[in-house]
User: What shape does this take?
Amino acid sequence: MFYRPEDGHGLPHNPFNAIVTPRPIGWISSRGADGGNNLAPYSFFNAVAYEPPQVMFASTSAKADRDGTKDSVANIEETGVFCVNVVSYALRDAMNASSAPLPKDINEFEHAGLEMADCETISCGRVAAAPAALECKLTQIVTLPGAANKVVFGEVVGVHLDDSCLNDGSFDVTRFQPLARLGYRDYSVVRDLFSLTRPDE
Assistant: This one.
């Protein structure tokens, strides 16, 4: 099968998200200039640089009460900071609850039954139960083709790690089992690892 996206795929569901998998989930917490807190998961998310450490996430839809974007992007535009919370398997239901299209004045931490902790280097909340969290300062927002496609880039200026996930000096993902986004309504969880040695090592 071959198709051009502009012509449509002819399938019952769009296969694009199922092709580009698995994808890490950026559970983005942000705070608006008015002090309101927001928490939302984004599956177009990844780390993009080591030095300095940098991450990105993309927002691809809009809310009627946010003038062409979503709460996360609007808050970050106002304050210049955000936090990426890592989603463990244990937090899957809370993450899903926080994805609800709620009005901008509703706190998703409360809606999802999550405890919020303060960040150390930025004025923003974070998920207290997350196995790791990355405090970020906005570097740029890039507008992509499409009605509401924006990519947010941030420099990581603070890192939280759950000490129980440290194993002999390494951050052991099998201790919290990170969630990954697949296509459609599907997710996966990381439980098994294997290693490969690079040819130049």
